[in-house]
Amino acid sequence: MICYRYLISGRVQGVFYRASAQHQASALGLRGWVRNLVDGRVELLACGDQKALDELEKWLKIGPEYAKVSNIEIIKENQKALSGNFEVRPTSSL
What is the pTM of this model? Predict the structure, then answer.
């Protein structure tokens, strides 16, 4: 299993970015979570196979209808022990 942390900047809060990302990641069979950060970014951790992660990354660059993504920082993570569904977490200060 491969894991990446994504830090998404732009107009990504208040536009259903987290809920839409959760839907996309779940549809791709990925595990992980997504949350808002107090600095206005969205943070997402996704684990799964490379093909599904590549598809998620394509979607993250566009986001839902009212989002405007200006930058995505991608950090490869060590494999995480994640179980259950892809979830939306509360806002974090990172």
Answer: 0.92
Domains by residue range for the chain, with CATH: 2-78 (3.30.70.100)
Q: From CA 57, how far away is CA 25, in angstroms rounded? A: 10
**d(C-alpha 65, C-alpha 36), whole Å:** 18
The token pair at 30 is 């990925």
Tokens of 86: 């892809």
How confident is the model at residue 1, as a pLDDT?
Answer: 85
Which listed residue (11, 31, 35, 36) is catalytic?
Answer: 36
Indicate the length of the chain as a whole number.
Answer: 94
- Is 41 catalytic? The answer is no
Is 82:48 a contact under the CB 8 Å cutoff? Answer: no
